[in-house]
Amino acid sequence: MKLLRPTALALILSGSALAAPAFAADKELTVFDWAGFEEPVIFQGYIDKYGDSPTFAFYGDDDEAYQKLASGFKADLAHPCSQMVSKYRDAGLIEPWDVSKIPAFSTIAPEFLNSKIFKDDSGVWYIPTDWGATAIAYNKDTVPAEDVASLSVFIDPKYQGRTSLPDSADDVWALAYLATGVTDWTKVTDEQFKAAADWLRKAHQNVAAYWADPSEQAQLMASGAVDVAWSWNDGVVLLEKDGFPVGFQRAPKEGSSTFFCGYINLKNGPGKEDKAYDFINAWLAPPAAKGLLDTIGYGHTSTVAMETIKDEPAVKQGLSPTNAPILAQTPNDPEQRERQLAEFEKIKAGF
């Protein structure tokens, strides 16, 4: 069985992705990104104009990316999810975008910019581009549908050593909060934090591996090593393309999570600023939505772009609204996020 993007996955797992660009192409634009977003169909307009893709360097999670950039790694753009933007702003690592150079900026759905962290009197600091869900991926041949009707599947002794969680503090805390009855992580009490941490420690007992990348998660499931995973859309897309009997339960009784990500303009980038804008404009062009959906399984933030794919089965199955609760991974208190990150590291270490 061969899954997509093995080179990017290997670089992430080895750590070499953070040391140097993984796919060198146009040297005048370096994009620090998640593995998988180097697919040309997502930014075809840039290639049409310049004849090549930007140079990409990859990371496995948001916190690793921040640490690398804060330590001096040079790139022109990075692709954090929304809850990280305040950290980049506070550290002085980014500068505002000139949206007069981004014609499709006005087509971004307003809910993706509804924060002073993203847009304030000093400018637009974030260009949201893509969004998805985190929910239960499961092997339909080995896991009964009733078992994934609840997030308690992750602490069920029946699945000891048969589950996988993302090596991402944001996603695992979204899971733990949902499982303990919290759907708004911007208003978490000490008692709610403790309850979620206790639940996460129980879930840790069932974990065979924490996946660092959707390709790794897909490989864990395809190999039979795990039956249930807390998954983004892209892991499911990879498995579906390989004919694996994967289910994606987005409506367990406690709910699922949503997230959105986008691009920041890094200060003192080594490349050409005009090319950074051309890359963003290519991303926001309507044809990018189909490429994004087909390769990653995510939705597009542009209402015009989303209109072109609204009838796609992948949109209806993996991105449509559900009747279950939703925890939206919007910006939360930076101190609380650091507290969650530290506690997650303890839990993974068995404490």
Automatic annotation (TrEMBL):
It comes from the Bacteria. Residues 1-19 form the signal peptide. The keyword Signal applies. Residues 319-333 have a biased composition (Polar residues). It holds the Pfam family SBP_bac_8. This is Extracellular solute-binding protein. Residues 316-339 are annotated as: Disordered. The lineage of its organism: Bacteria, Pseudomonadati, Pseudomonadota, Alphaproteobacteria, Rhodobacterales. InterPro entries: SBP. It comes from Paracoccus limosus. Keywords: Signal.
